[in-house]
Amino acid sequence: MIRPPRIGVTSISALLLAALNLAAAAAEPAIAIAASTSTWRKGEKPADVQSLVLDSLKQAGVTVQPKAGLTLEVDYAELEGPAYELPGTRRRDSLPGTKIEFSADLTPEDGIPILTLNFVGKPPEFIDGDPYAFAIGEFKHAPAVRDLGQAVRATLGSREALVRLLPDILDPEMHRVIDTLVARQKFTPQAAAERAWLALGREDFSELRTLKTDAVEPLLAYLGTVEGAHRQAQAAAVLADLGDPRVAGPLSDAAFAAAADSANSDEDVIAIIGAAGRAGTPQTIAPLKRISDGNPDDFGRFGVVPDPEVRAAAKKAVEAIAARQPKGQ
After folding, report:
1. Are residues 184 and 237 in the same domain?
2. Which residues contact 293 (CB under 8 A, 6 or more apart)?
3. Are residues 42 and 61 in the same domain?
4. Percent of the chain predicted with pLDDT > 70
């Protein structure tokens, strides 16, 4: 009598896991891509956006095929932007810029999009280098473009993809998309980091305090991304109170950047400086000393020195850091 070969429990588990993975992959529908591109630059071709989108989808594990029930409709346009001075000249029109507009709609056969992502470039007032290369770099690094594949996969129901998207909640366009996906999936955060990113999206600093070290990375990202010293001051206060050594350097840098921007109120700048002083170390004291010293050369092209109140707050922060050090160090 011939006996069938024995299969161990481990082998059975591996086979079941493989089967489940295959079933999950098969359950996600495939999508097709339809791209429209244009450029204002005469005699030039627009960037190869279709390949960029295809790579993002493949990296996210989304199946792409020529014909499918879902179509990702991509519209990419390179528009003429502001002109810049060519180095060595005073002609404002000598170096033309480019502004990129991009949209992506994931659309089923009924024609009603279930996902919409948009990007509109923001050409800077001043630029160092090739304006077109700057525009392309800004486009490729935009969360709505960089993480397009994960957004599509999350729209198709993947919780894992939605978790990967959570750090993009600091981007206004992705914030809108993530809020929609959280509601659609009835997403409940499981890990502390997931709670932290969602709390940050709501700017719920009270909850972030309760998460302690799990809130550090999201708050540091917020501090370096969000516009406006008032919101930065709120994040800085929480970071300083967490007592994590990772926050000292970023807080000092944020304090200097806030002090160097004359549009910020003294009250908000002083609050950030105070947080930097509470968390600071001798290794991170230099930006605070620069504020205190008030050397015009340290404050950019226009050399606007902070007000005396701000400089006094920086001096107090430097003294507080020095006072915490053991004598003789």
Report:
1. no
2. 311
3. yes
4. 87
| pLDDT 10s digits, 138-195 | 999 999 999 999 999 999 999 999 999 999 999 999 999 999 999 999 999 999 999 9
Please report whether residue 21 resides in a domain. Answer: no
Per DSSP, 45 falls in state P
Separation of alpha carbons 228 and 96, rounded Å? 30
In this structure, the answer to whether residues 220 and 298 fall within a common structural domain is: yes
Q: Could you tell me if 208 and 239 lie in one domain?
A: yes
Check if the beta carbon of residue 229 is closer than 8 Å to that of residue 274.
no
CATH number, domain containing residue 114: 3.40.50
Classify 116 as helix, strand or coil.
Answer: strand
Name the nearest CA neighbour of 217 among 186, 191, 183.
191
Give the residue from 314, 304, 249 showing the smallest Cα distance to 279: 249
Q: Say if pTM beats, i.e. exceeds, 0.70.
A: yes
Q: Which domain holds residue 226?
A: 192-329
Residues 199 and 113 in one domain: no
Do the beta carbons of residue 96 and residue 81 sit within 8 Å? yes
User: Around Cβ 308, how many Cβ atoms within 10 Å?
Assistant: 10
Kindly report, residue by residue over 122-143, the tens digit of the pLDDT: 988 888 788 999 999 999 999 9
Residue 283: CA count within 13 A, CB half-sphere: 6
Q: Among 129, 157, 188, which residue terminates a domain?
A: 188
Structure tokens, 233: 């001051």
**Do 164 and 106 sit in the same domain of this protein?**
yes
> Do 119 and 145 meet the contact criterion of CB atoms below 8 Å apart?
yes
- Of 302, 307, 313, 304, the closest CA to residue 276 belongs to 313
Question: Of 188, 212, 231, which residue constitutes the final position of a domain?
Answer: 188
